[in-house]
Amino acid sequence: MKRLPPALALFLLAPLVGEYLLGNIPLDVWAPVAFPPTALLYGCGAVLIREVVTRAGGGWLMTLLLAITYGIIEEALVTQSLFNQNYLGLGLGAYGDVPALGISVPWSVYVLSIHSVWSIFVPIVMVETLYADRYGRPWLRARGLVANALGYVVGAVILFSAMYLNEANDGFLLSALQLIGTVVVVAVLIILAFLSRPSRPSRGPGRAAQTSRRAWSPVALGAFALAAGTALFLLFEFGPDRKALSEPATWVLLSVLVTVVLVVIVGNTRAADWSHRHVYALAAGAVLTYCWVGFMVQITQYGFRLIPTIIQILLVAGAVSLIVIASRSVDAFGSAVALGITGESGNTDKLESTVTSGDIGEPSPESVDETE
User: Fold this and answer.
1) Which of 54, 282, 306, 330 has the CA that lies 20 to 30 A from 123?
2) Does the residue 48 lie in any domain?
3) Is residue 367 part of a domain?
4) Per residue of the chain (372 residues), what is the pLDDT tens digit?
5) Residue 37: which of 152, 126, 124, 147 has the closest Cα?
6) Residue closest to 84 by CA, chosen among 180, 173, 167
7) Whole-angstrom Cα distance, residue 183 to residue 23?
8) What is the per-residue DSSP string for 234-273?
9) Is residue 143 part of a domain?
């Protein structure tokens, strides 16, 4: 993959992880047909978020907030699954619904998690790691950004049309109040994303002088991401999907899961030795979650079939290979603290030479990837 321009690598990886490794798209004759519009939506969306964060001088927190924004736009405005209680005839939105909001909390947490974390954040982390020597530098010129924005809009229109015309959705359209509420939430998230940008750090001892707390090892964090991701999918499988768990039980378990994830991740990001190795470990653990979940999703939705199962095995092999290859580039980031979570940065010359400031303008030709 490193032979590809980084923007193209991310464009391809986002849909491959977000939908194909997940097993959400049938791995038959429909797989190549569905890839172009899926890539336009997921791939262009991921590249745009990465480029915006880079030019704004943001970090991983800004990336995550914009990834959540992406998920809300897709599921509230494009597919409208957040508000359609009988989305695709599955009845997922009626399980654990909050009438005042018009949404199902279990379904919303699940679907926004898979899009913000697995479809956008994880592919960006993987590609940034793979191309560590280009971290913090824009990949695209103005024409490339415009082309990506247009591609994203085209992909959104195609998916919206497909969902609207799907007989199972019965021509569902969200209400004006739901539309206004969604726009407000999206606007607030975008503002918070830009406010999360770290101030430009100065040379010095940094956070290490403020706390002696150490982060979990990358292996432990990767295992935690795998366990938490597995718990999320099992809760969805036995909650909204099969309805084997009662709604109150799902609410309680989901609340505990979200709380534990936030406590562990926030606590680790405040550690003195928090670095890109830890961010990468979380992403790798998330990818490994999809490696086994994809089989469950593919088989439960479409039944066991030999050829699709073989293709799923190949996708898993590719994902594991990507994790191994990208791990060799992690040390290129040095031991510097990952940017954007805490507003701190390390002192390594390599990282400081690539980090952009918040007032970056049009990148110079020599600092931009050749991808238009």
Assistant:
1) 306
2) yes
3) no
4) 666 799 999 999 999 999 999 999 999 888 999 999 999 999 999 999 999 999 999 999 999 999 999 999 999 999 999 999 889 988 888 888 888 888 999 999 999 999 999 999 999 999 999 998 888 899 999 999 999 999 999 999 999 999 999 999 999 999 999 999 999 999 999 999 999 987 654 333 344 444 678 999 999 999 999 999 999 999 998 888 788 888 889 989 999 999 999 999 999 999 999 989 999 999 999 999 999 999 999 999 899 999 999 999 999 999 999 999 999 888 776 543 344 333 333 333 434 344 333 333 344 444 455 455
5) 152
6) 173
7) 30
8) HHHIIIIIT--S-HHHHHHHHHHHHHHHHHHHHHHHTSTT
9) yes
In angstroms, rounded to a whole number, what is the distance separating the alpha carbons of residues 12 and 102? 34
> Distance of CA 177 to CAs 25, 182, 185, Å?
32, 9, 12
Largest CA distance in the chain: 61
Alpha carbon distance 190, 16 (integer Å): 26
| Angstrom distance (rounded) from CA 341 to CA 121 | 14
- Could you tell me the residue range of the domain that residue 42 belongs to? 6-200+208-356
- At 97, list the tokens: 């619904």
Q: What DSSP letter does each residue of 34-93 carry, written as one string?
A: HHHHHIIIIIHHHHHHHHHHHHHT--HHHHHHHHHHHHHIIIIIIS-TTT-TTGGG--GG
Confirm if 47 and 63 have CB atoms less than 8 A apart: no
Specify the amino acid at residue 320: V
**The two three-digit tokens of residue 196, written as one number:** 């999360």
Dist. CA 74–CA 232, nearest whole Å: 20
Q: Which of 301, 25, 26, 51 is nearest to 151 (CA)?
A: 51
Structure tokens given for 66: 């914009």
Q: Which of 241, 251, 254, 290 is nearest to 87 (CA)?
A: 241
Domain assignment of residue 372, yes or no: no
